[in-house]
Amino acid sequence: MNNLKNLNEDFLALISAIRSHLEFYQELGLTHIGRNNLRSKVNPNISLAEPAPINNPTIMLENISSKTLLSTDQSFLFNIGNDTQISRSPSKQFPSIKKSLGKSTLIEIRSEVGHCCQLCNQATNVVFGEGNPNAELMFIGEAPGAEEDATGRPFVGAAGRLLDKIIAAIGLKREDVYITNVVKCRPPNNRKPTSDEMKACEPFLFNEIEVVKPKLIVTLGATPLTSLLNVKEGITKTRGQFYSFHEIPVMPTFHPAFLLRFPEHKREVWEDMKKVMNQLQEIRKLDK
What is the rounded CA–CA span in Å between residue 282 and residue 230? Predict the structure, then answer.
């Protein structure tokens, strides 16, 4: 009887996990996920599922990894394939003379944060980056919000929970990536950081990039792209195309906080993240 009860609980948990993921994909515009047409040319040890065509997108699996989108045996894997062919050196190259703090570890960088601008004097907590110190993928936002200021952790509020779902949608976990912000202390009333505040915090950000050595950076909103590359165009014009920071591909996309206000743009972020995973695959091939 106990075994039957445990089996029933496991089944209900499985259904709940599947429903949660499917609801998120539906928000992204993927209104149907099929399990047909498994591709034998991909790693035979991985069970692959291909979504049915929706508005003719090209979404296919190309050996992304053995990581799954669900923490269950019923795993839907999305490989990102032939819609674009992206080289290691994206076309939009920008020279950079940005200066870093020059520290060799994240702990050393963290010990220096908190004395750089007036924001530090009114912050409850300094909000430093967190995640995998050897991450292939780095996400950079603008600045902490109220919940981040209270906890001292980046992206833990509503926008952070949406970012976690976006990361899960590409087959990764929060602990697989590195997440940080340009500015490490909360601006009053969540206003946009001033140029002086950004400049004061940028050495910490550039040092984080030097230490983590990500293979690809995703900037969330226009502010981090401006910080890295001084790109002045709005995020609507810049998202979806690769830039380069010290030969690291940079993909700008919408900030999760923007998506909470305008959820109809989630599908565009999904398209951007497909390109991100495709690019990572190309880089991994070149690094072998």
Answer: 27
Q: How far apart are CA 243 and CA 16, in angstroms?
A: 39
Q: Which CATH number fits domain 92-287: 3.40.470.10, 3.40.50.620, 2.130.10.10, 3.40.190.290?
A: 3.40.470.10
Burial class (CB in 10 A: 0-12, 13-18, 19+), 73: exposed
- Alpha carbon distance 283, 260 (integer Å): 32
Q: Both tokens of residue 121? A: 């004097």
Domain-wise residue ranges, the chain: 1-83, 92-287
Q: How far is CA 58 from CA 5, 37, 51, 70, 79, in A?
A: 42, 14, 10, 22, 10
How confident is the model at residue 32, as a pLDDT? 44
What's the rounded Cα separation, in Å, for the pair 221 and 260?
Answer: 13
In our burial notation (b when 16+ CB lie closer than 10 A, e otherwise), range 194-226 reads eeebbbbbbbbbbbbbebbebbbbbbbbbbbbb
Cα–Cα distances (Å) from 31 to 23, 53, 66, 82, 181, in that order, read 9, 10, 24, 21, 33
Hunting for tokens 């209104």 — which residue is that?
A: 31
Say whether pLDDT at 17 is over 90: no
The region of weakest confidence among 12-21, 170-179, 247-256, 265-274 is: 12-21
Q: Enter the pTM of the model.
A: 0.70
